[in-house]
Request: fold
Amino acid sequence: MSDLRYDVLAIGNAIVDVMAPCEDAQIAALGMQRGAMTLVDAARARELYAAMGPAREISGGSSANTLAGLAALGNACAFVGQVADDQLGEVFAHDIRAAGIDYATAPRPGEPPTARCLIFVSPDGQRTMNTFLGATSFLPEAALDEGAIRAAGVLYCEGYLWDSEEPRAAIRRAIRIAREAGRKVAFTLSDAFVIDRHGDDFRAMIEAGDIDILFANAGELAALTGTADFAAGSAQLAPKLPVLVTTHGAEGASAHAHGQHASVPAEPVDHVLDTTGAGDLFAAGFLSGHVAGRDLTTCLTMGAICAAEVIGHYGARPEADLAELVKARLG
Amino acid sequence: MSDLRYDVLAIGNAIVDVMAPCEDAQIAALGMQRGAMTLVDAARARELYAAMGPAREISGGSSANTLAGLAALGNACAFVGQVADDQLGEVFAHDIRAAGIDYATAPRPGEPPTARCLIFVSPDGQRTMNTFLGATSFLPEAALDEGAIRAAGVLYCEGYLWDSEEPRAAIRRAIRIAREAGRKVAFTLSDAFVIDRHGDDFRAMIEAGDIDILFANAGELAALTGTADFAAGSAQLAPKLPVLVTTHGAEGASAHAHGQHASVPAEPVDHVLDTTGAGDLFAAGFLSGHVAGRDLTTCLTMGAICAAEVIGHYGARPEADLAELVKARLG
Reply:
C-alpha cells in the first residue's frame, strides 16, 4: 500500500443540505414522495423552500458524506465534485476540507448556483429529499486528477451522478483509470428511482466486471434485480460481484464476498431523529473495515455503528468521534 | 390592545450563525476570548473559518432569535434587520419568515455580504462568537416602517446594534417613534464588551427613561454598573427602570418590577450542548409572559423554560414546541 496516497477517492455530487422537520401531511400536500430523492428544477426548489419551516444548512452529498465518515475513522480520502463560486459552494468546500479530506475541484463561475437538497424530515426520522443539482451537474472530465485516482486504493462512485451527462462521462473515465491501475471500484446504487432511470447502465457495468464492491439497500436491490424478495435478489446478484453489501434499514445488513456471507443487526439507537446519511455512513464504516482487511462481520458492524451515529442527529455528516465509537464497540 | 398588529417588533442584526464544536485549547490558540462576542473583519473571519471544523449554518442574530422564541409561543412579531442580496441573506429571510415573523427589510445589493457569526462551541456548551457584521452594519433609517413600530406593543432593541453608525441612528429613531406612540421599549445589553464600548449611551438612555424593560446578564450588569456584586448592581439599577430582568446562567434569573422582586432557578437540562441563544430565548419567554400580563414569577419561569430548550441543541432558534413546553410546565 506504500504507493497509495488515499484509501478512498470519491466522485459525487457536491451538495449542501437544507433540512427542516415536517409533518407527514405536509409531504403529501406538497406532492412529494416520502423517503425518495426527487430531482427538482429551480422553480420547484423555490416553491418547496417557501413551504419549508425554519431550516439549517449542513453539507451533504452522498459520497461526500461517506468520505466524512471514512475521514473520521482515520482513513485518507479525496473528493471530486463540482460547486459554484458562491456562498454555499464555500460552505461545502470548507466543510469537506475541515473534515480532513483533500478537495481540489475548482469552483465553477457564474450560474447555476451550488447544488442544494431540500430535506423534509418526518417525525419518525424518515427523510424526503428534493435535489436541485445546479453546478454539480457540470462536473467536467477535466476535473479528474488521474494521478490521484491511481493513488487511491478504492474509487467510490455514487449512482446519483448518473443523472447528468458530464459527470456520467467523468465517472466512466475515472472507473477506466482506476481499473487500469488495478484499483478497486466501489459503487452505491443511491436510490431506487435512479435505478429506474439508469438501471441498464448499472447492470451492464456489473456484468462487465467493472464494480468490485456494490452497496444497495432493499429498495435499490429490488429495482436492480426485479425481485422484491431481499434474499432472492441478493442471491441473484452476489455471484456477479466480488463484494455485495446490502442494507435493510432497522433490520440490519448483509454482505456476500468471495463466496462468504455475513449478516449483522442494526446497532441500537436511543432516538432516530433524521435518517439522512444512514446508507452513506454505513458504506463509510464498511469500507474502512474493508481497506483495513478486517473480516466481513467486523466490516458490517463498523457500518452499523456509523449509521447508528448519524441517524441520532440532524445532518448526514458524523458528529461523534466514530473511531472512538468503533474502538469502544469492537476493541 | 385591539389597534396593535404586533406584540413585539424587534430591530437587530441579521446574522447567519456558522457553528462548530471545538476544544478550549483551540479557543486559546486562535487568540479568542472564550464566551465573548468579538467583532471581526473579513480577513480575520476567513482566518477563523479556515481553522474551524466542519460546521452547520443556522440563522441567528440576538433579537431575531428572541422573536423566533416569541413566535413559537404564539406571539405576533415583526423583525427589522439588514441582509445582503446573497445566499446567506436568503437563508436568513427564509428562516425568519418560516418562523411566522413579518420581515420586510429589502436585501442590500452588492458588497459586503450578509453578516455571519463564527461560533466555536466548547465541550461544556460555552459559545465563543466572532461576528463579521457585513451588510447588517448598513441598516438605514429608511428601513423603519413607522406604522409597524406604532402598531407593536413592545419595541425590542439589541445593544449589539450600537456597533455600527447607521443602525444606531435607526434604533434611536425607532425608540422615539415607539415612545411617542406610547409603546414600551425593551432593550438587551447584549454583551459586556458592547457595554465597554457604548455604556455611556446605554446609561444615558436609562437615565432619560427611554427604556421600560432592560435585560442584562451578570457580566453585563457588572459592566454597566461598575460593581461585580450581582445583588448590589441590581439594587442600584432597579429604581431607574420599570422592569429589570437579570439572568445568572445556571444560577437562575431575577426580575425587579414596579417595586416587586422575584427570582427563579434555572430549569433542569439533561445535557447542555450549546449555550448560544440562552439569553435571547430567556428574553422571549419573559416578554411573552409580560405582554400577556402574567405575574413576575411566571414570566421568569417562561424565560427559564425557553432558555433550557435552546441550550439542549445546536443553534439559537427553538426546535421544540415552546408553547407546549410552557403549557406542560405551567398549565
